[in-house]
Structures are given as C-alpha cells and as structure tokens.
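Figure 3 (text version): structure tokens given as input.
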C-alpha cells in the first residue's frame, strides 16, 4: 500500500549536525506554510488510499494542533495503519499527546540523538535523559506506545563510554524501535562544513574517526540485540513485528507521495522533489504554481538492488540479475562484504559498514 510524507521544516533552533532544509523561521511564514501545506494536500488527486503517514521535519511536534488536524483530515484512509510524527524531546505535553492520538497519530519518533548532556550541549541541544523519559511516559499514558528513538553515532567527543551510557538509557526506556545513524560529514550541516574546511567551530576537531564511529555502531548492534531489538535495515532496529511500516516502503520500492517543502515522492516509475525553501514553496502554492522542482525517471532495477540490500534479509534476484551482476557479486563475496543463500543476496556484518562502496558498484554496473 502507498504512503504519505508531510514535511514541516520549522525548528526552534538549528542543530550543528543537521543537514536538512529546516530551521527557525518566522511565525508568519509558519502560518502561511500550514495553509499552503493543507492546500497542496486537499487539492491532490488521490489515485489510491494510503495506509501510512509520516510527518518529518524540522520539529512537527511544534506544529499548531489545529493546523495539524486540518492537514491530516484532508488525507484519506483515516485511521491509518501507521501515522508517525517526529518529535523533539521537551516539546511533548499531555494536551499534544491527547490531540495527536485523537486525530490518528499512533507512532512518535523521538529525535534524541544522545542521552549524554555534554554531547548534546555542544550540538545546541538542551534536553536531558530525564526529559526523554518523561516524554515517553506522557506518550504511553495517552496510548501512543509505538515509539522510536533516534541516536547518532559519531558526534563530537563521543566515546565508547558515553555511547554505552546512551545505549543503557535505551534499554531502560525499552522502545519497540530504534534508529542509529552515522554522522554524515557534508557541507549541508554547520558541523560538516567545519570539518570539510578544517575549521574548529562546533568542536569539529573532536568528531570520532571513521574506525571509532564504526565501533560505536557495532556496539549498538550488540546492545540492542540483547534487548530484543534487532537490525532489520542498516540504520533501523526493531522488536519482532515492530518495524516501521512507512519507512519500509522506501526500501521495498513502494509508492508514496510527498507534500511540503523539500518533500519527495515516488509513483513506482518516477521520483519528484518539491522546492527546498519553505518561502519558495509557500509562494509557489499561494500563486497557484506547482511546488515540484524536479522530476526524474527511476532506474527501477538499480534502485531495487541497492535499496533491497539495505535490508537485513537482503534481496531476491532473478536469474537475469544474477548473470548481469555476476562479476560484481563474486568480487564482493570473496571480499567478505556480501553473502548469498539460494537466490537471495545480502550484506555481511562487515559489508554493512562498507555498504556505500557496495551500492556504488551496483549503480555503475
């Protein structure tokens, strides 16, 4: 079944590690954005009924409740099998949780990143582990029990000891789902820009080495498994049958439609992306123009292989695909990065850590 992605790019602050098109914009722009987002959704020609909805950001947990209800009411299929809202720790209240549940939100993804106050402070965050624990209690008391906790491996000054502290907090809070992302060094985040330019702001000099970041990731794999939370995708871990229904669409090439600034969609044949700037998005929708800035045809075979390889179960290849990629597959199996079983191909534990190198070869093949 298809899904819906909604973008809410507004934050109260811009974290140093963030490389998304989000930030602290004016209240006036936010109000106009909410109206434009509702218009884009309400005027969409629905060719199918979605079964999942995902609100990403930014900080959707700060979205005006009336505006959020209005947007969701324009999406068919309520109540959806899964409707996720991303939330920043410290922004959750009993009133919000009550309204979220009433209007169909049944899953919340908490952008924790770290449970160590000193690590968070260096990125611009002010939360504490106790605040996250309180947020989980509030959500669960309002029948939102399907929780995800986001962590980032590779933040400045992170060590095995501090990472272990974060993992111990995860075990204590016992969420059904955890996402572990490796910090990406690119110029779209302030921290990444400093690293690439040999700068020192945001403690760029203290970002862990690639080897240490890989060690932290492996620690997470083992620690989460001890809590019954197993890896089902490179960055995602879940208890039995608690995988993210919406995000799984991305890795299985299921269609989804995106609404809002910098939102992306896929109809099974082509991909498209909306204007990145919230201001430009609002101006386009308000003037009756399409907010879509790009549209490209997909190479379905290429995408199916490298998205499928992200999954722990791997991907089933047909005889023609085995033959077409035989040389590449053989080389990576010999290098210990891929393994095969009957007609299924998947990454090894070492291959997960070098997955980008593997994916690039299949794209170029």
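Below: residues designed for each position.
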């Amino acid at each position: 079944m298809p899904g819906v992605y909604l973008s809410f790019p507004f934050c109260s602050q811009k974290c140093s590690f963030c490389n998304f098109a989000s930030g602290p914009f004016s209240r006036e722009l936010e109000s106009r954005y909410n109206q434009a987002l509702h218009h884009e959704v309400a005027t969409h020609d629905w060719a199918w009924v979605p079964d999942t909805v995902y609100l990403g950001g930014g900080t959707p947990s700060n979205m005006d409740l009336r505006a959020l209800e209005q947007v969701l009411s324009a999406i068919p299929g309520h109540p959806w099998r899964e409707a996720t809202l991303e939330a920043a720790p410290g922004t959750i209240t009993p009133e919000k949780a009550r309204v979220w549940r009433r209007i169909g939100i049944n899953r919340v993804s908490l952008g924790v990143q770290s449970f160590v106050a000193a690590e968070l402070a260096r990125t611009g965050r002010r939360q504490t582990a106790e605040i996250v624990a309180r947020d989980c209690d509030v959500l669960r008391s309002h029948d939102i029990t399907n929780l995800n906790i986001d962590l980032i491996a590779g933040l400045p000054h992170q060590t095995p000891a501090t990472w272990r502290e974060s993992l111990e907090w995860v075990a204590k809070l016992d969420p059904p789902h955890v996402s572990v992302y490796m910090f990406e060094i690119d110029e779209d985040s302030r921290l990444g820009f400093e690293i690439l330019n040999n700068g020192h702001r945001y403690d760029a000099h203290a970002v862990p080495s690639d080897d240490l970041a890989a060690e932290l990731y492996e620690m997470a794999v083992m620690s989460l498994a001890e809590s019954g939370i197993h890896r089902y995708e490179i960055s995602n871990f879940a208890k039995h049958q608690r995988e993210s229904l919406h995000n799984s669409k991305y890795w299985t090439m299921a269609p989804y439609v995106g609404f809002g600034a910098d939102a992306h969609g896929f109809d099974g044949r082509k991909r498209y992306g909306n204007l990145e700037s919230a201001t430009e998005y609002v101006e386009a929708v308000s003037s009756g123009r399409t907010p879509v800035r790009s549209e490209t045809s997909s190479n379905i075979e290429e995408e199916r292989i490298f998205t499928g390889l992200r999954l722990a179960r791997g991907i089933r290849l047909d005889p023609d695909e085995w033959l077409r990629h035989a040389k590449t597959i053989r080389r990576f199996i010999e290098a210990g990065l891929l393994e095969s079983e009957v007609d299924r191909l998947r990454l090894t534990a070492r291959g997960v850590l070098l997955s980008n190198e593997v994916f690039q070869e299949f794209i170029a093949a």
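The radius of gyration is 21 Å.
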